[in-house]
Amino acid sequence: MVEAAALSSRLGLPVGLYPRGPAWGFYQFFLPDFLKKSFKLACRRWMVDRSFLLGSRCGGVAGGWLAGHLLTRGWTLNAARKVSLLICALAVVPVFTALI
Fold it and tell me: Which one of 4, 18, 50, 70 is most buried, by most CB atoms within 10 A?
């Protein structure tokens, strides 16, 4: 049993990082080229990387704060999480409609 716990602790990081690899590769390599070709926006790769990292951090903190705020106002855990997730998902809609 101890060996299984040690193995799961060593595999946690690689298994957690594996699914986000393709998305990070898209942001890092293809997005600067897309912005340059589509919008004539000449930006360096590190600028794009930092802006997406900053945006994801702010979104994660804001989503967590919103769920916690709803919990302190008496909402159930399930409802607070679902409503905060819905609000964060709806915040992305203007970005997609702007690109269409």
Answer: 70
**Cβ–Cβ under 8 Å, residues 32 and 48:** yes
Q: How far apart are CA 57 and CA 51, in angstroms?
A: 10
DSSP the chain: -HHHHHHHHHHHHHHHHGGGHHHHHIIIIIHHHHHHHHH-----HHHHHHHHHHHHHHHHHHHHHHHHHHHHTT--HHHHHHHHHHHHHHHHHHHHHHH-
Pairwise CA distance, residues 32 & 48, whole Å = 7
C-alpha 8 chain-centroid distance:
24
HSE-up of residue 97 (Cα within 13 Å, Cβ side): 5
Condensed to tens digits (0 to 9), the pLDDT of residues 7-46 reads 666 777 777 777 777 777 777 778 778 878 888 877 776 6
Place of tokens 């702010």: 58
